[in-house]
Description:
The complex is a heterodimer. Chain A is α/β, with parallel strands linked by helices. Chain A has eleven helices and 17 strands. In chain A, helix 4 (115-127) packs across helix 5 (143-156). Chain A starts with a strand and ends with a helix. By secondary structure, chain B is an all-alpha fold. Chain B has two domains: 1-6 and 16-40, no CATH class; 56-322, ABC transporter involved in vitamin B12 uptake, BtuC (Orthogonal Bundle). Classes of the chains: A alpha/beta, B mainly alpha.
Amino acid sequence: MSHILAATSLSIGYPGKTVAADLNLKLTRGRLVCLLGPNGAGKSTLMRTLCAMQPPIAGQVLLDGVDIHTISPRELARLLSVVLTDRIQVGLLSAYELVSLGRYPYTGWSGRLSPDDHRIIRESIEATGATELAARPVDELSDGERQKVLMARALAQQPKLLILDEVTAFLDLPRRVDIMRTLRSLAHQRGATILLSTHDLDLALRSADEIWLLEKGGAFHTGAPEDLILSGHFAAAFRSEGIEFNAEAGHFDLHGQRGQPVSVHGEGLAAQWTCRAMERLGLAVVPDSHLRVVLQPGSWRIEGAVSLGPYPNIATVAEALRGQTSVSSKEP
Amino acid sequence: MLILLLLELAVGAVSIPFSDVVRILFTGESERSTWLQIIQQFRLIRTLNALFSGAAIAVCGLLLQTLFRNPLADPYVLGVMDGARLGVAVVVVISGAASNTFFAKLAFLGDLSQVAAAALGSVLAMAVLLWIAHRVSTVTLLISGLMLGYLCQGLISVVLHFTDEYQAAAFSAWNDGSYAGITRGQLSLLIPLTVLGLASALLLVKPLNALLMGERYAQTLGLPVFRARMVTFGIVAALAGTVTAFCGPIAFLGIIVAHLARALFQTSDHRVLMPAVILLGSVLALGADLITHLPWAKHFLHMNAVNGLIGAPIVLWVLLRQKHMRGLAS
């Protein structure tokens, strides 16, 4: 079996309220998969159903070919581990002790750890880059450090499948990138299969092997991130949120609608960031327009109804354009 | 602990030299028969009672603190003991109504029914707490426990209203909380019951550690959470019920000991905490009992007064520190 997790005709939700029906999904070993979708689409419900915290309304979830609800809790804990958004308060436990709880399904009645257990704990801590945190009390860690320790704990369970719910929420950008990089290397170097639900669309598109896209109303699409963008499913899923996905630029537009057209003429990194600046100003970058920003080595010029410049940097270009576009928008 | 034990045996209204205490313990004879009597009839029983009851109540505190994920949980504060007292009050009334002589004859059975009633009372109180705990925060749970305690006390008064004066007086004497008022027969029931409860608690260290992470995480670790909760509750009810039935409500010990153990060993790992709490519970109970019987005291101090003197500041300290931490987090 190449699929660690599979479900056919799966309906999820609560008694009396089906959130999504007839889902077909497969999870291939060694992949990092991100579950995306607008708020209220049922991401959490799907995650809970997939890790057996909630029964499906119809259909079944197969973990390694076995119905997940027929697996004993202890056996399930050896196959699947979970990182949740639950805030944990573990008193005086050190990070190492918290990670060692991951050995729970393997130890005897007293929870005594064998040398093997200790080795696995150390490896798990190393794999998430939490080595320096091991001796510190968990309650004193920052949010990002805590997530790493919790991921190490999940790894110590030696699962075939790792399910993470919103682990990057509440973290700053460098921490989020760090976590995603760790997850990627876990999947690609150590062969772990990882399912991650996230709100972090940009990061997910850039790091996931596969995207699961759950739309409001229960429509479900899977595929490589780029395929979902090309098919338009990605843009469609988030249009209801009032944000527009810019397929050309590969990110979400800050401005509701496209503004006045402008064309950027030049080459290299400077041209690329000039385009970004135009978008930030609410202008639509097009191949050719009567309003042109022309790059010369070390300076910028604006050409249009009147020619302006040269300007020494993008800030001064932006300042000039603000005046220019507001004037031109007043004229018919 | 050994020193405390000897002190406990030696100190009281009549002071007995250490050497004689040791001799009485090991040979069972003494120059003065009154000393022999005092030690064998009263002090030894009181001491053993303090040792086992202290351990039992301390373990209850630790179990409840982990179960409710609440650093201030304890059978006294949460009203579990009041539930047990209510159970005992009901038994006292029923036995009074049934006829005194009948129960006097079956004294052992009477003790047993007292334990059963107390355990049942604490189960009921805990069922209410469990129902509340899912909905509220730390502090609200504590207040709910207090209210539950008052409610039980009110019910006790009502129940006692229906009994005769003699029985009501007996009840209120028991109500004070002391290790002294126990008979040899009751002790022979208390020791096996508490040993059984403590042994089961020791078997629970692994699930308790998993529960530190919260119920959802514990579930993903393969712990049958519902079953573990129920077993823990059963143990607390049995231990708190037994001790309350024979010693009356013992205040604060459950909170103090668990925090002391955490502070001493700097860990939340139940594999360390559980034995530590059992030992410290015994020692502290012995110490508190010793203070109440110190020779310079004109008469006995109330034991819960001693517990309160130590316990209340600790509770306050924990509460204040928690507020401080929450302030940092937000």
